Structures are given as structure tokens and as C-alpha cells.
Fold these 3 entries.
Entry 1:
Amino acid sequence: MALPFLPGFDSRQRIFKHRALLGSLTQYEIRKHCGMSRESAMDLFEVIEPHIAHPTARGHATPSETQFLTAMSFFRSGSFQYMEGTVGGISQSTVSRIIERFSRNIVNTLLPTYLTFPTTTQAMNHAKSKLFDIAGFPNAVGLVDGTHVNIKAPRTQEEHAFVNRKLVHSINVQVVDSFNYSFSDIVVRWPGSTHDAFIWRHCGLRDRFESQEIDDCWVLGNSEYNYFSLLFIG
């Protein structure tokens, strides 16, 4: 049976749901989405916004603020379903594209600017001086350690490798911290069961020390890094 024709009705008409914008959320909602204060979220958005904004509004493009909230909420929760229920008006496929694009821009555009290990003589001397003022330890430019970032159990044959010593699934992330509480190097690739010393032995920063691309400085680690795994060059 044919459907009756309804004047003014277009079956191809698209309906756009309301999408959350950063400026419309309360302090509590921003902290729930992003895990930071409104001020910190706005500062981060100003940095990333030029790299994620669509050049035109064709096709009702997702606003930059909604993209930012989508990615930050996913990074905080790890759940596509959480995203769809809280940001609103976004399909799972759109969420996936936003997260992929957001992550690619951070890695390719922002990390080389904000995540840099001191290599020039001036930068090294500045880092050495600041760290010496804090702890009185000479010739050090950074401190290395590992931190576990909890994840959901991955659906792979190597699932057991992600179980750390506390029996939870995680990624063991190696970071090198500087005098001003900022990261100067980061390695995010090893499952939670991997030992800190192993990660150091197989990281690019250690290779740069070993090849003497970086020299005349030390990186300090805790007791989990033994003499043979941490490379000290004085």
C-alpha cells in the first residue's frame, strides 16, 4: 500500500540535535567532561581550536567547542556511550572521527612545540640551574619515572600483558619531568606489566644519550632504575 503524500514533508530533511558548547556548561559540567577547571579548559581550547576548526560550516560541521568536549570526555571516560549521552547530537561514527582527528593534531602539531627535551647549551644550563636550586643535585636536567594509566581490558591475545602488579589493566607511561613540572619527554606504548627499567632501555631518549646527541647532563630515576638501565652522562 502506497503511503499518502503529505504536503510540506520532505523525507530527506535532516534533523540536527542540540550540541553542547564549552561556553554553555557550568564549572561542574566542564570538570566532569574535561577533568579540569573552566579556566584551564578554556586555555587548552584556545591552543587547540585553530587546528580542529572546520574551514567552512558546510554540512552543519561540528563546532570546535563540541569537538573539544567530545575528545576530552572520551579521554577522561574511555566510553563512546558516555560521549553520546553527555555531549548530545553526535553519532558514534562522528565521535570516532573527532577523536582520531583531535589526537592526530595533538601529536603532529602541538607535541613538537610543548614537549621538548633541552638540547641547546643554553636550555640545558637553565634546566640544570633550576633543578640544582630545588634539590641541590648538580648537572641534572630531568627526572624519569613511570606512571600507570588504567584502561579497559583490551580484546587481544596479549590481554594478560596489560595487567600490572596491582592486577588492573593499564599502560605504563614513561615521563621525564622538568624543573617547572612540565613533561620534556613521554613514551606511551608499553602494557602495564612492563618494567620501568625495560621501557627506559628501549626508548628514543636513551638512544640519543648513548649516541652522544645529548651529553654533559644527567637524567635521574628512582631505585627501580638500576645502574645498567639508566644512562648517566656527565
Entry 2:
Amino acid sequence: MTLDARTLAAGDGWRVQEVICNAGPRDRAFEEQHGSVSIAAVMGGTFQYRTAQGSALLAPGALLLGNHGRCFECGHEHGVGDRCLSFHFTPAYWENLVAAVPGARKATFANAHVPPGRPLARLLASLESARESDAPSLEETANTLAAIALHADAGMHSQPRPPSRQDVQRVSEAVRRIETQAHQADRTLSLGELAREAGLSPWHFLRIFRHLVGMTPHQYILHTRMHHAAVRLRQSSDLISDIAFKAGFNDLSTFNHRFRTVIGTNPSAYRTAK
């Protein structure tokens, strides 16, 4: 197993790293400790995260939440590797940040993660296309991400019953399949197809997928397609129609509508926004 952590930017009390892990099912998880308040945006792969706040399957678009001084484990029981953008805050910096965020009730996270969702989609797509930004820009992003995480954590309710290991494996495999195939125009990835692949009825697969990922399979497929499209809008000068097609859409108006639903603005406005 190798873990590559590259610092992208750092300042007084904060640090941003790109963390790439190639661990797999044969690598034993071991206990670690958060040396700072940590928020990690999952950009690729899946892994299991266990901490005092609970356990969660982390998929692209989710946030890992780590409290300073708390022990944790990350495992790759159902697939190889992941990539995260990890934001770290010293306790003093974090306390000042929390005090300034309207509506923030406490400085410790009650949950292990924030599932993928619209409030994060636009920010994470921007992060993916601007990892080499200057330090002031990344510090602004770190503060924005922290506020989103605090509000999301405060509004979440703990799940009463953890999923089975087999359920986690099935959903993890489905997430990885969506990651690699969602943008292919000839792949529908219907609920029935994904459920058959997992060996479950559509109803049961839908229930456990939504429980673990935080949204339905269809919503996650849309989220994945729009993330890839948003990154290409910022990184290339390709026609929007070409990007739409490569994201799995044959109709530009449908693509524009879906992009606005997930990212919060239309593709042209997103491309030109700073």
C-alpha cells in the first residue's frame, strides 16, 4: 500500500493536500489519529471510513469529517484506491472559523461524513479544475467548504442501524461502475441493471444505495455526469454540445437543464464564472 500526500497550499492554521491512496482489499486497515480538524472531499474511488461518529461508505462527491484528536480507520475492502482533496485546520483556526459561521452550533462534527449533494457539486467541480490555484484562493475555498460541512452536519440525523458488510460491498461496486461508465452515451445504467449486477431486487438496491450514498442511483449518475462536464467546461474550449455528448447526453437542451439542476447555473455561465 502507498499513500501519496501532496500539499497544494498552506497558510497560518490551514493546509490543503491532494491525497492519493492505492490500498485494496488485501491491505489491512490500521488505526490512525486526526492531527487536525479534517474535511476531505472524495474525488475518485470508494472506501470505508470508521470513526467515533460512526462509519460510512465514502464515494466521489462526499465529504469525510474528522474531529481533531479522534482515531479513525480507512479501509478498501471492496475496491482499489481513492483520491481526495483534504483540508486541515488547526484547533485555533477552526474555533475562529466556527465562531464566524452563522448558525454553526458546535465545533465538533456529529457525523462521519456528508453525502454527495447539490450544495457541494459546483464547489467540488471547481476544485477539480483548479487544484493549482494560488494560496489565497484555496484558503477561501477551505472556508467555504467548512461552512457547508458544518451546516450539513448539523442538519443530518444519525442512522439507527448500520448496513451489512455485503450491502456496503454491493453499493461500492455499483458506485465504481457508475464512475467509469456514467459518461458513456450507450450506457443506460438503469436501476434494474444495477440491481441485477448487485444480485438484489430493485427496491432493496434502491433502499440501501440511498442509505449509503445519500441519493438514488439515478441522481448519483446525473451527479457524476455533471461533475465530469463541469471539469471539462473549465479545462477545455470544447463546444458545449460536444461536452454534452461526451457526458452521455444526445440532447443539448436536456443537458442544459440537468446541468443547471445539479450545478446551479447553466453551462455557459459556469464556464465564464470566476
Entry 3:
Amino acid sequence: MTAAPGTAPWPGPPAGAEPWLPAGEILRRPLPHLDEPATRAIIRLSLLLGRRSIRGVEGAEHLQALAGAFLVTPTHGTRPEAILIPALLAWLRGGRLVPFLADWNFALIPGIGFVMRRGRSILLTRKPVKPAFLNVLRPMYEGKISGFERARRQLEGGTPVGVFPEGTTNRLASRLLRGHTGAAQLSLQTGAPVLPVGLRYHRTEAGRIHPRSPFTVVFGPPLAPPPPRPAPDLASVRDWHGQIMEELARLTGRTWAPDHQKRKTACP
């Protein structure tokens, strides 16, 4: 694996490392900022089912130091993270949820849709889905304003928002995808700081992250954007996006470059 400049390759945990989250701690930790029993149960159940995937958390003090509006930008290598990372954030924050941007098609999956609603996911409805006949359901998930605009308004109202900036799962063990600039644009428009979150994987095969690989969650220091502008120019958005992605590369020990592939064409 090629590490980002100034970052040592991630060696992984010792053989037989125990999960970071004991089951008893998951059940006992109070969630005083959440008064919805069903959502509290989902958070605890998600972490109980996925606790062997989480082998450690570093830099949690950076998360604890933030209040009000900020953007959480995790890397994304395996599918369970879409549930585990929002649950972990809420658990670490005493029940304060971080709504994540998500494509609307995932809300069609039985059970997953319920979890997304309880987690207050912000649905993006621009993409069609397959099989095509399911697109007749899209109007049910479309709001009066776009998901991106809803995220912007939540940030302006003091609520944090989560975005997976790579836009999809990326199993390449040595590099990040080019990613999408939505998080950078939201940050520049609202002045919200960015909390970069790198996931370091402990199991790779032939240069790919194993789909059931455990990982360590690494929170980096918050990144403060330039003064907010309602309509930042494209060059500013791309530059800020690059700074975010370079910090994610540093946290993960992977590489990032603006000419990397944008989609997971080489990493099924």
C-alpha cells in the first residue's frame, strides 16, 4: 500500500484483536439527547451487530469538541459502514444524530428504509434505479426541495450533516476515488467546518479491501473553510474538495489525486 505523504502505511491490529466496543458498554452508555426509544434501539442494535467490525476509534476528541453545524466526511469501503458510521456518531454524541445524504434507492430496501427514516437520512432523488420499473416510486421520496438544498438549510439551522465524499463504496486499498464536491460546496456556502473521518482497514486481498474487513475509525482535526459565499466559484469548490480529500488520504494512509477515477469501475 502506498501511503499519503507524511503518513505511515497502516499495519493493522494484532492477530486476534478484540472489538473496540464491549457489548455491555453499548447497552449501558446513556443517550440523553435522544428521546425516541425506537431510534435508541436501532443505534444500540446496529453497534451490537457490527461491533466486531469496529476495532478502534482514534481522535474522538475532535468530534466531541464540535457543536452546532459541521460536515462529517467519512471514507467508505464496505457497505455496512452506511449504517455503522451514523450509529457510532450518534452513540459517541450521546444520542445527537448526524443525518447523512443518501441515494433514495436504498430506502426501498426492506428494513434499511426504516433505519434511514429513524436516522433522518436526507434523500437524493436525482439518480434512476434498476430495475427501471421501481422508478415509478421515486415521487414518493421527492420533497418540495432537493436533498442538497435540505442539507444546506439544516447546516444553516445549526444541524450537522454527514456526506460520504467518495459517493460510493471504494474497495481500492491504496487510493481514494476522486470523489464528489458536494461536501466542499456545502461547507463553502454555509461556513460549516469539515470533520474528516478516515477508515483504516485491517484485511485486504490482492489490493482490495475485503468486504467484511474490520476497520479503525480515525477522526482528524476539523478543517475550517474560507468565509462563506452563497455561490462559490468552481475553482474554489474544487480546491476545497481537494484539501478535504488530501486530509482523508493522510488519515487512511492511502493516496488521492484529482485525476483518480470518479467511480468504482475497477473495484466491484
